[in-house]
Amino acid sequence: MTRPPVTALRIAALLLSLAPGPALAQSAFRVDDVAPGDSLSIRELPDAESPALGRVPWDARLRGFGCTNETPSGRTWCRVKYGRLVGWARRRYLAPE
């Protein structure tokens, strides 16, 4: 299976961020399984190779706006907000509050 072009991922991320309704019901998460003193990258797109928009502390609390199904890379991502930072975080590092 080939990887979708970045343009398609950008469009999908934009549509998910703009879509109204239950798919974007807010959830509360805490950063989990990140070593004390370390931080979690928040990315532009749900892809480990996507640029990091910023990092959040190992003990941060985030608002979530929906998670992807497993992506072609075999990972699940969640759209999150921390302060003014909005992007994608690996679901593996988030625990429900």
Poorly predicted runs are: 14-24
- The amount of beta strand, in percent, is 35-45%
Listing every helix as H and every strand as E from the N terminus to the C terminus, the arrangement reads HEEEEEEE
* Mean residue pLDDT: 82
Query: Which structural class should the secondary elements be placed in?
Result: mainly beta
Q: What's the CATH H-level homologous superfamily?
A: SH3 Domains
CA-based shape? globular
What is the domain tally? 1
Radius of gyration, CA atoms, in whole angstroms: 13 Å
Q: Which fold name fills CATH's third level, the topology?
A: SH3 type barrels
Terminal Cα span: 36 Å
Question: Under the CATH scheme, which class?
Answer: Mainly Beta
- What's the count of strands? 7
The CATH architecture assignment turns out to be: Roll
Q: How helix-rich are the residues, as a percent range?
A: 10-25%
What is the tally of helical segments? 1
Major sheet: size, sense and barrel closure? Answer: 5 strands, antiparallel
